[in-house]
Amino acid sequence: QVQVTESGGGLVQPGGSLRLSCAPSVHTSLILRVAWYRQAPGKQRELVALIVDDTNTNYGDAVLGRFTISRDAAKNTVYLQMNSLKPEDTAVYYCNVMMKTTYLHYWGQGTQVTVSS
Question: Which of 69, 68, 84, 77 is nearest to 26 (CA)?
Answer without folding.
Answer: 77
